[in-house]
Amino acid sequence: MEPKIIRKSAFQIIGMQFRGNNDNNACPKLWDKFAPRMTEVKPFTTEPITAFGVCSNCDIENNIFDYTVGLEVADTKSVPADMISMEIPAQEYAVFESTLPTLMSTLDEIHKKWLPTSDYLPTAGPEFELYDRDFNPEIPESKLYLYIPIIKK
């Protein structure tokens, strides 16, 4: 499991957020709530759209975090009702391929195996899942990308 190391510029998303954990499949349920409203989010930065699942403000001790699902936008001047805007800062990332069925095991392997033995340390910046035009939630082997914020040791 070797990631691609990249530097990504800051970007903005508009979407929906909850604070809690993934008990009772809270993260997938947020996607289910957001998906029918995606067309309300504009102006898109990319066409076809790029969607994100962002994990931030983690309280590891209590297993609580903010999870935001959204679309990348050119600006956040028009945020639909019951949605939020979020800026993801410029950051260096370790990027890993995954699929929906292997998402949790991939994250576990990254944090328990890859990071401790790598030349990098995790940073406090948000981690995110990137779903590009090739991703199809109906196809289990469809690729998504995990972006883990890092700094060199």
What keywords describe this structure?
Multidrug-efflux Transporter 1 Regulator Bmrr, Chain A; 153 residues; nine-stranded antiparallel sheet; 16% helix; alpha+beta; 2 helices
Give a short overview.
The chain is α+β, with helices and mostly antiparallel strands. It is 16% helix and 42% strand.
List the helices and strands and how they pair.
Layout lengths: L3 E5 L2 E10 L5 H9 L16 E9 L4 E10 L10 E5 L2 E8 L4 H15 L2 E3 L4 E5 L12 E9 L1
Antiparallel strand pairs: 1-6, 2-4, 2-5, 3-4, 3-8, 6-9, 7-9, 8-9
What would you say this structure looks like, in words?
It is a single chain. Strands 1, 2, 3, 4, 5, 6, 7, 8 and 9 form a nine-stranded antiparallel β-sheet that branches. This protein has one domain: Multidrug-efflux Transporter 1 Regulator Bmrr, Chain A. By secondary structure, it is an alpha+beta fold. The radius of gyration is 15 Å and the shape is globular. It is 16% helix and 42% strand. The model has no long low-confidence stretch (mean pLDDT 92). The chain is built from two helices and nine strands; from the N terminus they run ββαββββαβββ.
Strand content: 35-45%
Considering DSSP H and I runs of 4 or more, what fraction of the residues is helical? 10-25%
Broad CATH class: Alpha Beta
Number of spatially distinct domains? 1
Mean pLDDT: 92
Order of helices and strands: EEHEEEEHEEE
The shape, in one word, is: globular
CATH homologous superfamily placement:
Regulatory factor, effector binding domain
The largest sheet, given as strand count, sense and whether it forms a barrel, is: 9 strands, antiparallel
Question: What is the count of β-strands?
Answer: 9
Query: Helix count, per DSSP?
Result: 2
In terms of structural class, how would the helical and strand content be classed?
alpha+beta
In the CATH hierarchy, the third-tier topology is known as: Multidrug-efflux Transporter 1 Regulator Bmrr, Chain A
What's the architecture, going by CATH?
A: Alpha-Beta Barrel
Distance between the termini: 19 Å
Low-confidence stretches: none
Any idea what the radius of gyration is? Answer: 15 Å
